[in-house]
Q: What sequence folds into this?
């Protein structure tokens, strides 16, 4: 019994850390510019496919591919801002929402066009295998994904809190006009937020690709759950996203064990509804 | 800014639409017209909540699915006539809408949008796992002799077309009545500025609940129609997120918050998506999804107020929403 609980705790923490980083990226974009990116999960999906292509074509291990996918997705996020998001900044709310929705559908279609609807996996990598500690089993890919996500979040937090660039980004988030008056290029900051948001899911996606199936709609599974985590943590709060990711990871794994794996997402959705209605500012939200 | 559509033009269009099946022998075109009329109905229904009241929902498949499932289950389990099932479905959906609206109308902006999506996804998951409603296998309606009473037509599909036109006319009448009533003005006031509406003693909560109930009932009506049209319901076909998006997209493309916008939106979008599916998605590839997503982005960027709506004023930087 105790071992089962401990095992669930371990699994939940690893699932949760990956989710935390995905949610951090989503939360960052929302915090800086009040726009929800419905294509966030599709960025994750593209990172997974990028890892797969580098693995199949160049024989590159996912860990070695990580810097490449991060750069690639940073560029894609930046491009999305420049080509799409900047143009709907002054538009009514429904145009902003459906803008990224259109991107989500187009990216899913593009992935299916290029790679088909098949499920892919990366069976061998430098992190394949598992660690057995007494009766507890820890998958090395899950461990690597969890530690990688933790590293990504620490890096993001240091960037935001300890650098000039991060301060400019936070200033833009607080008051765009005031930041602009102080000579901050707010347009560049918005682009940076999109790049960083996508880079977050690049880390998650690349490490997820070592132990999760890769298919065109994989992102959709994570987007709504990431929304739940962002809401629970407080829209715009990175530490909040970290805590919320862990909570939802634990809830998902426990619900999957006690109830059924089909229904586990319903629990995550229920958390979203409960939080936004009962405590809309989230656990650690600023407003 | 709303364009005036002359009664004579409407009457002429109605005559043409009524006469169309006589001139069309090929079943594909008739089916396309029927489905277009159904989506126009759905767009009008969505518009009552999303357009007039400004509450953007990407969960309307909840109500479509409830309409389809209610009539189908009542027929299969209790032998109820599908027309009674249609009314029952509308009632179930309206009740569900009030249940959804009660907590969700506490939320604003993105919070509300995501809440509707999350509720729709939860319902999809539940229906996929729930054996009593056919789970992932879905429910098959038995083929009966063609008749209006049985709500099934096999040799000629023209009756489905006429029923779809009837639904469209009813939805238009409801929307027109809402537009001209106190309800319509109150909804628009809520959309423009909720706090100001409240200060005018408008019961914001109640009006939003009325709007979502009316919207849901009309959506469920189309849901029952769809179930009788294809004689099969399962979660992916009547409860999916992509259906919710399409329902919202019809009025957004045509002109959000306008009476005729959803009709125009359906007339453009549905043939376009059906044809692009045929031309572009051969061999299981999905160019049509890319084109569809691209179209949505193009609308968002260039015509955010839709084809009938006023063109967007250039506001560099713009206000933050």
A:
């Amino acid at each position: 019994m105790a071992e089962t609980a401990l095992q669930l705790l371990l699994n939940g923490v690893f699932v949760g850390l990956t989710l935390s980083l995905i949610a951090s990226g989503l939360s960052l974009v929302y915090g800086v510019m009040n726009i929800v990116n419905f294509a966030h999960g599709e960025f994750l999906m593209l990172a997974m496919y990028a890892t797969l292509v580098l693995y199949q074509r160049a024989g590159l291990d996912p860990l070695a591919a990580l810097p490449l996918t991060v750069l690639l997705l940073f560029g894609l996020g930046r491009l999305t801002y420049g080509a799409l998001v900047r143009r709907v900044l002054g538009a009514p709310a429904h145009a902003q929402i459906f803008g990224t929705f259109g991107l989500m559908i187009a990216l899913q279609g593009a992935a299916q066009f290029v790679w088909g609807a098949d499920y892919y996996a990366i069976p061998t990598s430098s992190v394949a295998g598992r660690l057995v500690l007494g009766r507890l089993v820890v998958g090395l890919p899950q461990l690597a994904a969890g530690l990688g996500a933790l590293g990504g979040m620490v890096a993001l937090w240091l960037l935001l809190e300890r650098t000039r660039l991060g301060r400019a980004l936070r200033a833009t988030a607080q008051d765009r006009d005031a930041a602009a008056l102080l000579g901050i290029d707010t347009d560049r900051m918005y682009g940076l937020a999109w790049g960083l948001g996508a880079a977050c899911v690049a880390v998650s996606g690349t490490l997820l690709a070592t132990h999760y199936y890769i298919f065109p709609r994989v992102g959709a599974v994570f987007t709504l759950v990431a929304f739940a985590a962002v809401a629970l943590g407080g829209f715009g709060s990175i530490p909040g996203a970290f805590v919320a990711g862990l909570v939802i990871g634990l809830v998902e794994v426990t619900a999957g064990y006690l109830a059924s794996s089909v229904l586990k997402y319903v629990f995550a959705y229920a958390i979203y509804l409960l939080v936004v209605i009962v405590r809309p500012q989230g656990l650690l939200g600023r407003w | 800014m709303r364009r005036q559509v002359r009664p004579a033009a409407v009457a002429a269009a109605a005559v043409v639409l009524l006469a169309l099946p006589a001139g069309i022998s090929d079943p594909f075109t008739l089916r396309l017209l029927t489905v277009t009329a159904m989506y126009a109905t759905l767009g009008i229904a969505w518009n009552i909540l999303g357009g007039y009241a400004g509450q953007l929902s990407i969960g309307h498949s909840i109500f479509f699915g409830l309409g389809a499932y209610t009539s189908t289950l009542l027929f299969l389990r209790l032998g109820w006539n599908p027309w009674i099932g249609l009314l029952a479905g509308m009632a179930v959906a309206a009740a569900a809408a009030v249940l959804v609206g009660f907590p969700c109308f506490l939320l604003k902006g993105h919070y509300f949008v995501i809440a509707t999506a999350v509720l729709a996804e939860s319902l999809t998951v539940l229906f996929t796992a729930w054996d009593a409603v056919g789970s992932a296998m879905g429910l098959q309606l038995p083929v009966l002799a063609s008749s209006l009473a049985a709500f099934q037509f096999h040799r000629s599909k023209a009756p489905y077309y006429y029923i779809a036109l009837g639904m469209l006319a009813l939805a238009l009448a409801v929307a027109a009545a809402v537009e001209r009533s106190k309800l319509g003005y109150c909804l628009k006031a809520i959309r423009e500025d909720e706090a100001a509406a409240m200060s005018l003693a408008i019961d914001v909560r109640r009006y939003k609940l009325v709007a979502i109930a009316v919207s849901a009932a009309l959506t469920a009506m189309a849901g029952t129609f769809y179930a009788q049209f294809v004689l099969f319901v399962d979660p992916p076909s009547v409860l999916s997120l992509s259906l919710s998006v399409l329902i919202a997209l019809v009025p957004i493309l045509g002109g959000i918050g306008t009476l005729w916008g959803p009709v125009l939106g359906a007339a453009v979008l549905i043939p376009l998506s059906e044809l692009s599916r045929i031309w572009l998605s051969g061999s299981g590839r999905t160019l049509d999804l890319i084109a569809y997503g691209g179209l949505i982005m193009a609308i968002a960027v260039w015509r955010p107020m839709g084809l009938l709506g006023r063109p967007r004023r250039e506001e560099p930087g713009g206000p933050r929403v």
Residues 312-321 of chain B have pLDDT under 50 and may be disordered. The longest helix of chain B spans residues 204-230. The CA atoms of residues 159 and 187 of chain B lie 35 Å apart.
